[in-house]
């Protein structure tokens, strides 16, 4: 599946980036990709932990200045989230 969704969470503080990422993931079909952009430094810890808990896949993590970008692929079973 090649569905891709962008989620810009720049400016939001913990816990909002991880909560909104979790909600966005729940709405995606298996195999879809979610690209999340954040500025909250805690997202570097929180989003990878979320992905581990839900059974989804963290395909990439990038940092560009204050921005963190995560590319997440929804798990085949739709995750546990």
Walkthrough of the structure:
The protein has 81 residues and is α+β, with helices and mostly antiparallel strands. The chain has one domain: TusA-like domain (Translation Initiation Factor IF3). The protein is 28% helix and 33% strand. α1 links the parallel β1 (4-9) and β2. α1 (16-26) packs parallel to α2. It is globular. Its EC number is 2.8.1.-.
Topology:
Blueprint lengths: L3 E6 L6 H11 L6 E6 L4 H12 L2 E8 L2 E7 L8
Parallel strand pairs: 1-2
Antiparallel strand pairs: 2-4, 3-4
Helix/strand class: alpha+beta
The CATH superfamily title: TusA-like domain
Strand content: 25-35%
Low-confidence stretches: none
**Quick check: average pLDDT?**
92
Annotated CATH topology: Translation Initiation Factor IF3
Strand order of the largest sheet: 1-2-4-3
Main sheet record: 4 strands, mixed
List keywords for this structure.
81 residues; alpha+beta; Translation Initiation Factor IF3; 4-stranded mixed beta sheet; 4 strands; 28% helix
Offer a concise description of the structure.
The protein is of the alpha+beta class and 81 residues long. It is built from two helices and four strands, in the order βαβαββ.
């Amino acid at each position: 599946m090649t569905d891709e969704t962008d989620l810009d969470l720049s400016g939001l503080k913990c816990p909002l980036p991880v909560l909104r990422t979790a909600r966005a993931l729940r709405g995606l079909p298996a195999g879809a990709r979610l690209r999340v952009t954040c500025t909250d430094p805690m997202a570097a810890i929180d989003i990878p932990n979320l992905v581990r808990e839900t059974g989804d896949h963290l395909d990439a993590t990038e940092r560009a200045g204050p921005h963190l970008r995560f590319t997440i692929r929804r798990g085949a079973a739709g995750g546990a989230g």
